[in-house]
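cron nightly-structures :: item 1 of 1
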Amino acid sequence: RRGLTHARPRLARSVGNSRVDELTPAILYEWHRELAVTSSAVTANSYLRAVAVVCGRLVDRGVLAASPARH
């Protein structure tokens, strides 16, 4: 849960006003790449995992057709 608490604002700054169903693997890849420059690899990977968990849950609930964090 801590990872998501910190990942959410960083992702929001990166994607702006995009809706969750507008996220693509390319957007998440670029966000993760930028995080790896400004944070440790462990932090960047932790944040990406947290976002992937949320996206997976949204797929399970029918909000997303597929997770942009899995390609």
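cron nightly-structures :: done
Residues 41-60 form the longest helix (20 residues).
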